[in-house]
Amino acid sequence: MQLIKWASALVLLGALLGLAAPAAGQSRRQKIKNLPQYDERNWRYGFQLGIHRSRYNIRHDAFYAANGDSTTAIYPTWTPGFMVGLIVSKRLGSELWNLRFTPNVTFYERTIRYEFNNNIDRPRSSSFEQTTVEFPLLLKYKSVRRVNNRMYMLAGVTPAFSVGTRRQRLNDQALQVRNFNLEINYGFGFDLYFEMFKFAPEIRFSHGVPNLLMKNGNLFSNNLDRITTHRVALILNFE
Fold it and tell me: pLDDT (tens digit, 9 = 90+) per residue, 55-67?
């Protein structure tokens, strides 16, 4: 956990330095335009690294509202994670529009905590350590380029499949979630043009659409009606 916190701080520092570097470089080089033909390419490729904080969003069942058992509180917690991926970008007519496909592998650890009236000082939890393969398809709209930087917005959808999940799959007394998810994504970032590559720090928000809860009639699932995902990510794109 401490290592992830330090990594998050270093990535954020790198993003801030990346934003400042083009401005300093422009003054030294009298605003020389880097990669002047870059945005005329129909196809562009790259890779991305990212860190995120995610959690489950939950909706309680009527059974919980009616005090159906000894459960007194259920609450999800925010947890960190990271991702690595590739970038395939297609120009759509104008240089201001791009269609982006960014397949990646993302690592999550999501937790839901439970408290009971007979053991309230020691809450139990259901944790899911997941390795997920994701296939984001995003539409990107950019502002007009100003020397070596421009701002952009993007939005799209992400189908995702869990390929490795540490959980008690066959235990009827454990909370279980489905392996497939579909998220709506939106965010913003900055394209920063350097002499040899383009660097783009990006903030992205993701909201899961389907209900991931698998009802199996136990203490942990009876009190819940719906589970969806929510994530905030800092992504560093290199193209």
Answer: 999 998 888 778 7
